[in-house]
C-alpha cells in the first residue's frame, strides 16, 4: 500500500461515528420494538422460575401420575421424566409469553392448564396482569378468566393428593394468600397500568387532534389572507392601471407630435403588460372562489363623485344619478357599493371605451339599488384590443354582494349595451348604527 493510500485510509471518516450512522439509530430502533424486547426478556429471564415452579409443591393430578410412572422405572428414568416436565412446562409458558400482547388467550390457557395439572400458580399472575393491562376494554372476558383462575387456585389446594391441604383452616389461609399473590395483586396492578396507558394515549390523541385543528385554522387564515390580497390588488391596482392605459391610449390618438405619441404608446404597452402580469399573480394568490374573504377597507359612497371624475378625465362620459333620499348606510355596505361601481366602470372602460355610462344609486326604504349601464359600441368604432383581464371581477363582486346579503345580476341589452345591477337589503337599525359610526 502506498503513502497516498495509507493517508486516504487514515483521513477517511469511520463508518460507525458518522452522523446518522448505525449507532445513533439503535436507540429509536429499540424504542419502536421495546414491547417485543420486553417479552423476550421475560420469556428468557423467567424460564428458570417456571421450571422450578413446575417441580414444586403442591402437586396436581399430572404430578401424581408422573410420580407413579417414576416409581415403576429407575431413579435415572424418574429424574429424566421430571426434568422433561420441568423444562416442558417452562418452555410452554415462555413461548406463550411472547404472544401475551397479541394473543393473550394462549398464555391464560397455559397458565390455567399448569395450575390444574401440576399445581403451578405463578404463571397465573403474569397472564392476568398482561390481559388486564393490555385489554382493558374486555371486561367480561377478564371476569371469566379471573373466575377460572380462582377456581384453579382453589383446586390446587383442595386436590386430594395434596398432603399439605388436610385442614380446613390451612386450606382457607393458603388459598387466600396464593389468591392475593397471583390473582388480586396482579389484576389490580394490570388494571391500573392499563387505565393509565389508555389515559396517556387519549391525551396524545387529543394533542395530535388539537395540532391538526390548529394547522387547519392556520391554513384557513392563510387562504383568507391570500384571497384578501388578491381582491385588493384587483380592486385597487387593476383599476388604477386600467385608467393609466386608457389615458395613454387617448393621448396616443390625440398627440400633437410624434414623440409624444410614441411615449404614450410606450406607457400604454407597459400598462397592458403590467395588467397581464397582475392577472397571473391573481391566479396564484386566489386559490379558490369559495374562500371566504374579509371585506376591504377605505372608500365609501361619498367618494363616488371623485371616482366618476377620474373616468371623465380619461375620456369616458359618465353620468351619476341618485334617486330616493340619500342617507348614511353601514360602512361595510357603502364600501361594497363603491367597489361594485368601481369594477363596473373598469369593465366598461375595457370593453366599451368611449361609450356613455350611467351610474344610478336608488335609495329605497329597505334596500339600495346600484346600477351601472353602458351604451353599445357604435358600428363605426375602431376595433381595439381590450386590456388584459384577471377573470375575477364579476366573481369578486358576487362575493362582496353576497357578504352583505344582496344579489347581483349582469347581462347585455338587446341593442348590445351592458348592465350590472345589485340589490342590497338595508336594515333601518343598521342605517342608524352606520350613520352614528360615520
TrEMBL record:
Q: Where is the composition biased (Basic and acidic residues)?
A: 1-13
Domain Signal transduction histidine kinase subgroup 3 dimerisation and phosphoacceptor residues, every copy: 225-289
Q: What is its EC number?
A: 2.7.13.3
Q: Does the keyword rRNA processing apply?
A: no
The record, for CDD domains, names: HATPase_UhpB-NarQ-NarX-like
Key words of the record: ATP-binding, Kinase, Membrane, Nucleotide-binding, Phosphoprotein, Transferase, Transmembrane, Transmembrane helix, Two-component regulatory system
Q: InterPro entries attached here?
A: HATPase_C_sf, HATPase_dom, Sensor_HK_TwoCompSys, Sig_transdc_His_kin_sub3_dim/P
Q: Which reaction does it catalyse?
A: ATP + protein L-histidine = ADP + protein N-phospho-L-histidine
The entry lists its GO molecular-function terms as: kinase activity
* Residues passing through the membrane, by range: 40-58, 79-99, 105-128, 140-159, 171-193
**Which N-terminal residues, if any, form the signal peptide?**
none
Query: Per its UniProt entry, what is the enzyme's top EC class, as one word?
Result: transferase
Q: Could you tell me what this protein is called?
A: histidine kinase
What organism is recorded for this protein? Nocardiopsis mangrovi
Amino acid at each position: 500500500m502506498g503513502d497516498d493510500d495509507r493517508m486516504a485510509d487514515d483521513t477517511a471518516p469511520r463508518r460507525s461515528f458518522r452522523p446518522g450512522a448505525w449507532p445513533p439509530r439503535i436507540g429509536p430502533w429499540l424504542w419502536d420494538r421495546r414491547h417485543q424486547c420486553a417479552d423476550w426478556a421475560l420469556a428468557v429471564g423467567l424460564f428458570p422460575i417456571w421450571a422450578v415452579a413446575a417441580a414444586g409443591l403442591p402437586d396436581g393430578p399430572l404430578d401424581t401420575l408422573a410420580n407413579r410412572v417414576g416409581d415403576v422405572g429407575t431413579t435415572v428414568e424418574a429424574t429424566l421424566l421430571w426434568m422433561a416436565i420441568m423444562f416442558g412446562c417452562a418452555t410452554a409458558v415462555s413461548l406463550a409469553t411472547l404472544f401475551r400482547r397479541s394473543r393473550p388467550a394462549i398464555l391464560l390457557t397455559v397458565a390455567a392448564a399448569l395450575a390444574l395439572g401440576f399445581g403451578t400458580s405463578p404463571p397465573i399472575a403474569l397472564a392476568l396482569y398482561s390481559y388486564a393491562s393490555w385489554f382493558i376494554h374486555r371486561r367480561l372476558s377478564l371476569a371469566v378468566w379471573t373466575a377460572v383462575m380462582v377456581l384453579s387456585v382453589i383446586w390446587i389446594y383442595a386436590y386430594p393428593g395434596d398432603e399439605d391441604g388436610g385442614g380446613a383452616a390451612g386450606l382457607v389461609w393458603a388459598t387466600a394468600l396464593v389468591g392475593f399473590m397471583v390473582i388480586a395483586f396482579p389484576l389490580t396492578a394490570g388494571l391500573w397500568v392499563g387505565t393509565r396507558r389508555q389515559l396517556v394515549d387519549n391525551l396524545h390523541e387529543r394533542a395530535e387532534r388539537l395540532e391538526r385543528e390548529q394547522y387547519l385554522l392556520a391554513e384557513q387564515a392563510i387562504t383568507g389572507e391570500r384571497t384578501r390580497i388578491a381582491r385588493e390588488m384587483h380592486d385597487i391596482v387593476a383599476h388604477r392601471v386600467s385608467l393609466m392605459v386608457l389615458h395613454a391610449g387617448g393621448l396616443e390618438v390625440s398627440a400633437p407630435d410624434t414623440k409624444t405619441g410614441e411615449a404614450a404608446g410606450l406607457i400604454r404597452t407597459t400598462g397592458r403588460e403590467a395588467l397581464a402580469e397582475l392577472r397571473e399573480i391573481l391566479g396564484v394568490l386566489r386559490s379558490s372562489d369559495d374562500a371566504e374573504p374579509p371585506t376591504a377597507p377605505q372608500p365609501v359612497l361619498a367618494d363616488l363623485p371623485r371616482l366618476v371624475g377620474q373616468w371623465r378625465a380619461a375620456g369616458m362620459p359618465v353620468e351619476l344619478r341618485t334617486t330616493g333620499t340619500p342617507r348614511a348606510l353601514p360602512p361595510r355596505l357603502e364600501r361594497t357599493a363603491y367597489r361594485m361601481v368601481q369594477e363596473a366602470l373598469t369593465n366598461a372602460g375595457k370593453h366599451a371605451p368611449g361609450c356613455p355610462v350611467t351610474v344610478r344609486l336608488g335609495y329605497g326604504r329597505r334596500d339600495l339599488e346600484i346600477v351601472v349601464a353602458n351604451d353599445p359600441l357604435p358600428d363605426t368604432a375602431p376595433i381595439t384590443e381590450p386590456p388584459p383581464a384577471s377573470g375575477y371581477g364579476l366573481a369578486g363582486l358576487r362575493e362582496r354582494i353576497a357578504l352583505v346579503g344582496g344579489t347581483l345580476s349582469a347581462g347585455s341589452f338587446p341593442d348590445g349595451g351592458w348592465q350590472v345591477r345589485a340589490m342590497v337589503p338595508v336594515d333601518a337599525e343598521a342605517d342608524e348604527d352606520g350613520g352614528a359610526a360615520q
